[in-house]
Write a structure and sequence with these properties.
The structure is a single chain. The chain is mostly helical. Among the domains are: about 1-85, Serine Threonine Protein Phosphatase 5, Tetratricopeptide repeat (Alpha Horseshoe); about 310-390; about 430-535, no CATH class. Helix content is about 70%, strand content about 0%. The chain has helices spanning about 1-10, 20-35, 35-50, 55-70, 70-80, 90-105, 110-120, 125-135, 140-155, 155-170, 170-185, 190-200, 205-220, 225-230, 235-250, 265-280, 285-290, 300-310, 315-325, 330-340, 345-355, 360-375, 375-390, 425-440, 445-455, 460-465, 470, 475-485, 490-505, 505-515, 525-535, 540-550, 555-570, and strands at about 395-400, 405-410. The chain has a two-stranded antiparallel sheet. α6 runs antiparallel to α33 (about 555-570), α7 packs parallel to α9 and α20 runs parallel beside α22. The chain starts with a helix and ends with a helix.
Length: about 575
């Protein structure tokens, strides 16, 4: 009915000759409100022919072309009025959305991924249809990213889709994202659904861990009765959840209820109970825990030795030393992981075994623990430095165990993962960057040399995914070292140092170097530069990004549009 009246209203205007500039402008915006983009563009062409210098009409035409997805036409119109008019935020946003509106239907995965990222940064209602569409995509990669984005919005349509995906999603890594999103959004209505998944006999180890974390996030409190029902459940996963909740909610007064679970028939439950009681420092529970120092499960035995380091340090040291010297190197690495989080009481043994052990990974894990304690600092730093610069070192990863509190450095066993190019290499570089960060934070004298060696390696794409790890602390040493490397003789080192500084937020020195080098870079490196600019979110970069919207490659135009939106919303 509303459309009919508008049509009736427009018809008489043609009976009186040419429309005025204002009438054309109003008609264009009316069509845009009705989402009749084609009519808006047709009307705008007629108006521009009659009033080519009208700023208001040029802006209306620009918006019509943006909404239709004619990014190149919109750019031409933008250039006509932007020279005489100050660039308004809404105009710049419309320009970016013009690029994204065309690209969102692209068959190319990488382009649609960039559109999805850009849309999520706006926190705008316009992003919801794009996120919802990609949550239903046939591409598991797009679904996975869209679900991550949905966890930052939490609007009802997205929540409903998460509920649907929890029941229907078959791809394991997408299911993990669904579960994590439900936990982040604290969707308490999904508690029972998650519990059913948790006790499913075919649940994978990774999925079970994600469900447990999500469930814990859904609890603000738990009644005594509900806790007892979990503790007495015939399902090990629910008994495990009871221990996690006691620790997470710091239910010191109810901790006595999980004492029987220290002797549970399932090793994971025994470990969960030991962890909870140790973290809550329930000393009276130690006789129960002590019994498991000789548990048939090595994971339980080492967990008990770690608990002993808290309650009876001499006993704990005796048993951890036993495992550190075990013939099975895997047991030794697990014991090193336990010792590295034992605090000041574990320092003497950690230093002793760091010097005596012949296993590089065990030594590194112990060194990390000592660095965190700021004890025997130089020796521990020197060991990590030597390991980082060793030319024949294999790819690395963090080894996890049945006890989620333990992790040790280990040779990588990572496999290729769909949607993440060179996934084992990405994990390796992330680990190395964490160690570099540790050297920087603790002011190791040779940290600059270690960082330079890392930047000189052929890892531009890897760095983009992982470099933020080095910079999480934003420490002055990392910034100072990277600033020195801006003057390095090797151009690759200079560029990567600038890239790292940009991610640290030090745009004053870094961004000019990246922008100056941009025309000489290949397409992949241009994408990294635009990504760094987006990360900084500097408004002074807007003219540079607008210029990149003229790039011949759609992927670069989409990346520039995404960066433009991030700068506007930073």
């Amino acid at each position: 009915m509303a459309i009919f009246f508008r049509v009736v209203f427009f018809i008489p205007l043609f009976l009186f000759g040419a429309l005025s500039e204002e009438q054309y402008t109003r008609r264009i915006y009316d069509y845009l409100i009705l989402q009749d983009n084609l009519s808006a563009v047709t009307e705008s062409k007629q108006g521009i022919d009659l009033y080519p210098d009208s700023i208001s009409l040029l802006k209306a035409t620009f918006r019509a072309l943006c909404q239709q997805g004619d990014e190149l036409g919109a750019m031409k119109i933008f250039e006509k009025f932007s020279k005489s008019e100050k660039e308004e935020r809404s105009i710049l946003e419309a320009l970016a959305w013009g690029v994204l509106n065309k690209a969102k239907e692209s068959p190319q995965l990488e382009i649609r991924l960039n559109v999805l990222k850009a849309a999520s940064f706006t926190k705008d209602v316009k992003a919801l249809p794009i996120i919802l569409k990609e949550m239903r995509s046939s591409s598991a990669i797009l679904r996975s990213l869209a679900i991550q984005m949905a966890s930052h919005f939490g609007d009802e349509p997205l929540r409903k889709e998460l509920e649907h995906l929890l029941k229907e999603e078959k791809v394991w890594f997408v299911r993990l994202q669904v579960i994590q999103a439900i936990g982040k959004l604290r969707m308490s209505s999904m508690q029972e659904n998650l519990k059913k998944i948790l006790i499913h006999p075919k649940i994978s180890l990774e999925e079970r861990g994600s469900v447990q974390i999500a469930l814990v996030n859904l609890y603000d409190d738990i009644s005594h009765e509900e806790l007892l029902s979990l503790i007495r459940s015939d399902r090990a996963a629910l008994r495990h959840l009871a221990c996690d909740l006691v620790a997470y909610l710091e239910l010191v007064d109810l901790a006595v209820e999980i004492y029987p679970l220290v002797n549970d028939t399932v090793a994971e439950v025994r470990i969960a109970a030991i962890n909870a009681l140790t973290l809550l420092k329930k000393e009276e529970s130690f006789p129960l825990i002590q019994y498991h120092l000789e548990d048939p499960s090595v994971d339980v035995a080492i967990s008990s030795a770690w608990a002993a380091m808290v309650f009876e340090p001499k006993l704990g040291e005796k048993w951890l030393q036993f495992w550190l010297k075990a013939a099975d190197v895997e047991h030794g690495r697990m014991a090193a992981a336990a010792l590295s989080i034992s605090g000041v009481r574990g320092i003497p043994l950690a230093f002793k075994m760091m010097k005596e052990s012949t296993d590089l990974y065990m030594k590194a894990t112990l060194a990390i623990g000592l660095i965190h304690q700021r004890e025997h600092l130089f020796e521990a730093q020197a060991l990590l430095y030597k390991l980082l610069l060793h030319p024949h070192t294999k790819e690395w990863m963090w080894e996890g165990y049945l006890n989620p509190l333990f992790s040790s450095l280990a040779p990588s066993r990572m496999k290729h993962r769909e949607g993440i190019p060179q996934f084992p290499k990405v994990v390796d570089q992330k680990v190395r960057l964490e160690l570099l960060s540790l050297l920087c934070i603790t002011h190791y004298p040779k940290a600059e040399e270690a960082i330079r060696a890392f930047l000189k390696s052929d890892n531009w794409g890897i760095t983009t995914l992982a470099a933020a790890v080095l910079l999480e602390e934003g420490n002055a040493t990392s910034i100072e070292i990277s600033q020195k490397l801006l003057k390095d003789a090797d151009e690759k080192v200079r560029l990567q140092a600038a890239f790292l500084l940009a991610l640290m937020g030090d745009s004053e020195e870094a961004l000019p170097i990246l922008k100056e080098a941009y025309p000489r870079l290949d397409r992949e490196m241009k994408l990294h530069v635009i990504g760094a600019i987006a990360q900084v979110g500097d408004l002074d970069s807007i003219p540079f990004l607008i210029e990149q919207l003229k790039e011949p490659f759609q992927l670069l135009r989409v990346a520039a549009a995404s960066a433009l939106i991030q700068c506007l919303y930073h």
